[in-house]
Amino acid sequence: MHERPVLVVDDDPSMRMALSESLVSCGYQVEAAVDGADALKKFSKGQFEVVITDMRMPKMGGMDVLKGVKKISPRTHVIVITAYGTVNTAVQAMKEGASDFIMKPFSLDDLESVVKNVFSQGVNEGHVRDGEEAQSSGKEIVTCDKKVLATLELLKCVSRSKSSVLLQGESGTGKELFARYIHRHSNRASMPFVAVNCAAVPHTLLESEMFGYEKGAFTGAMQRRLGKFEMADGGSLLLDEISEMDMQLQAKLLRAIQEGEIDRLGGRETIPVDVRIIATTNSDLKKVISEKKFREDLFYRLNVIPVHIPPLRSRTGDIPLLCQYFLKKYGELSGRQTPLLSAEAAALLQNHSWPGNVRELENVIERVVLMADKGTIRKEHLCLEGGEMPGADPPDVVPQGSTLWEVEKNLIFNTLKEVNGNKTKASKILGISVRTMRNKLNEYKMTNL
Known about the structure:
Helices cover 45% and strands 13% of the residues. By secondary structure, it is of the alpha/beta class. The protein has three domains: 6-121, Rossmann fold; 132-310, 3-Layer(aba) Sandwich (Rossmann fold); 394-449, Arc Repressor Mutant, subunit A (Orthogonal Bundle). Helix 3 (62-72) links the parallel strand 3 (50-54) and strand 4. Mean pLDDT is 82; it is low at 123-138 and 386-398.
């Protein structure tokens, strides 16, 4: 059950009830509004992660609801539903900030799929400290590192071009934040920024996710659906974890980038699109190319502006700054004063290797803010990867001469063993994301270790 409810807006009582009951059956908390004015009133008083609104309603339509919600909270996801609008209307809603749309008639599976996809995007995807818009959206790149600042200046300079950008770096370094930074400083800033996680979407569905499909294109295609390329028309398209894309789809992506046009599944006409491509990867693409898992011609098409995001362990000067930022953030969210770090805790954080990078640091701070008593964080509150959990048995002795890579691998395997292979539980214990866990396990598998 999601903690923050979904707000459903529809002036039709039967549709409003059907939407609410369907979402509740899928495990969501739901609150309903009878019209646009009622929706904005309820939205201003509550905390909603997603708003689902009908487009055509008397007095205040769905587009007005969308604009009103975004004015109050730019981070909130809005899904629009329509049986009357054209595809152009849906695209206009996307350009105004809608996260997705769905057209009537639709099935419960269609509704659940769209809502699940929007929830998976999250509302606090990161942090970029470079202006009021970034601060209001909760997305800030917090840094004082000279190399990172130089990278940001470079990205600001190239942001107004249409050239593709390839952002490379370890998991947890904030690659998507840099992608949003590029978009925000480009002449496309007022247009959509659309992201697709190539690793999270099954290969069999990724093509329709990116290029869309026509009604009847395959079993279950009850209506036309726009893909991410069309949703991002005029703006920027982020292809996250591009190395996970199937080779066959890579060929279609290459054509779309070269020709500036796409084909919907089941469609008869090509559709022109104006999209700036930003790709991210935590893999060594040259190595993936040598393994015949990634097209070399696509690599060179994406790698026009190559950018490497450094891991946190190589910019340790940012650790105190990030700690203070996250302490303030989670102190406010928990309704407490910003906790203080003891000298011993600060030293421990400063000297940690941070295999999960900024994401791991944020997870640690979020946890200790809840654990600290009397507003002071001591070193025993810190549950760092490789360290002791409070109340836990001491870890096994590390064999002398072991590399950091071997220690990390053994720690992950031992933690998985303790939780019977549950990756989600193991990730929480280690303070890393499930994605990082999956990437690490794939890395160990490739090395046959």
